[in-house]
Design brief:
Strand 1 and strand 2 form a beta hairpin. The protein is globular. The chain has 407 residues and is mostly helical. Helix 3 crosses helix 4, helix 4 packs antiparallel against helix 5 and helix 4 runs antiparallel to helix 6. Helices cover 69% and strands 2% of the residues.
């Protein structure tokens, strides 16, 4: 039965991510244009728009250097669909859909199958995740790789050979989105501290797989950090960061708290219309009490909740170090899966607690499903009907720019 349910959730997730994908959001973001121009040039000539042959980093308008992975994923879809906004957004829709299944696996491993299914269902309709699953932005790769890395880490604690795959995934994750350069070391630190004794035992008992994983990670990480620190790869960060400003600690704390604010998370979201639709937070408002209940109802999964909380807290740090568009949903996108898992676990605990109090289980399930469905339906209506009619983004570009840019 669980296979059928997760299958249905994935079908729904895929549908809401591809429906009118070329038309919503309006126009084409300038970053989407740059990605597709490079993908098209590589497809046709083997060099990018700056005459670099199969590069690891792409120069976008002499302002930023972006990692290779999303551009390379776009190439087969440019071949299949031709130049246009659809080709650059389809990879995001597919990555977003695949992420739902990875979220399910991780939540199932941390908690149980029911929490896994709830996590997948919530992520499928998550405003934060849906928004970036319908845009040709490389950032959508980050939640997928982080969730897969956490899943492999939990599996590796039981079967050390998974440390090899963990090294591969962590290394490749650095090639997805620039904020991962800071977040990955932070997450490794969280895992090392939180699971120190287990890791020490595994290392003493089966160090071969652990060391192979570390070696693979280092090999994959070297090009990223070499470029960042020795070839100008951090120039964009220094341009928009709080580094060098007066009172950087105060700026950081203020930015961090803005990312934690109910206004950002549940009410109005990111002010940038590419990142969020008006009058909706990054997460469905109805989930706020369930996230709090994940901490307040007694349970036996304290360590798992603390792990998700630590990852969530770490995910907000890179965005808080910048000084542009704060709070910034795109740079904080890594927080998505942890937030939905905490909400799912809160729903699971609520259902279990209320049912124990004598309320019929079917009634509790129907009531929770109804209020979440109403909030989700309201969001979907606004996204697919109101948003395209009333919001015209500043960076909007007509689809013809793809053709013009490729000539």
């Amino acid at each position: 039965m669980a296979i059928g349910i997760i299958g249905l959730i994935i079908i729904v997730a895929f549908f809401v991510r591809v429906y009118k994908l070329s038309d919503i959001p309006n126009g084409a973001h300038i970053d989407e244009v740059a990605t597709e121009v490079d993908a098209y040039n590589l497809l046709m000539t083997g060099v990018d728009s700056h005459n670099q042959r199969w590069p690891l980093f792409f120069n976008h308008y002499d302002e930023d250097y972006v990692e290779w992975m999303y551009t390379y994923l776009t190439i087969p879809f440019v071949k299949l669909f031709g130049p246009g906004v659809l080709a650059v957004r389809i990879p995001a829709a597919l990555v977003g859909t695949l992420s739902i299944y990875i979220f399910y696996l991780l939540a199932k491993e941390l908690f149980n199958r029911n929490v896994g299914l709830l996590t997948a269902a919530l992520a499928a309709i998550s405003p934060w995740h849906l928004q970036f699953s319908r845009l040709g932005f490389r950032a959508v790769l980050a939640p997928l790789f982080i969730s897969l890395a956490l899943y492999l880490f939990i599996k590796a604690l039981k079967a050390p050979k998974n440390f090899v795959w963990l090294g591969v995934v962590l290394g490749l994750s650095l090639h997805t989105y620039s904020v991962m350069r800071l977040f990955i070391p932070l997450m490794i630190l969280v895992l090392a501290v939180g699971f120190y004794w287990q890791l020490l035992e595994i290392f003493n008992r089966s160090k071969k797989y652990f060391l192979i994983g570390v070696f693979i990670f280092i090999v994959l990480a070297v090009p990223i950090y070499n470029f960042a620190f020795f070839q100008g790869g951090n120039d964009r960060f220094y341009e928009i960061s709080i580094v060098g400003q007066a009172n950087p600690v105060s700026h950081f704390m203020f930015h961090y708290l803005q990312h934690l604010s109910p206004q950002f998370l549940f009410l109005t979201g990111d002010a940038n219309p590419w990142h969020s639709i008006p009058y909706f937070g990054q997460t469905l408002l109805v989930l706020a009490p369930f996230i709090l209940l994940a901490y307040s109802i007694p349970h036996s999964k304290q360590r798992e909740v603390l792990l998700l909380s630590a990852v969530f807290a770490s995910a907000l740090i890179p965005a808080s170090l910048t000084d542009q568009g704060i709070p910034h949903a795109l740079r904080a996108i890594i927080a998505v899966p942890t937030l939905e898992m905490l909400a799912a676990f809160g729903i699971y605990l609520t259902n279990k607690t209320v049912t124990k109090a004598g309320v019929p289980g079917w009634f509790v399930t129907c009531a929770i499903t109804a209020i979440i469905s109403y909030n989700a339906a309201l969001f979907m209506y606004n996204y697919f009907v109101i948003y395209p009619k009333t919001v015209y983004v500043i960076d909007e570009q007509p689809p013809e720019i793809f053709i013009n840019g490729l000539q």
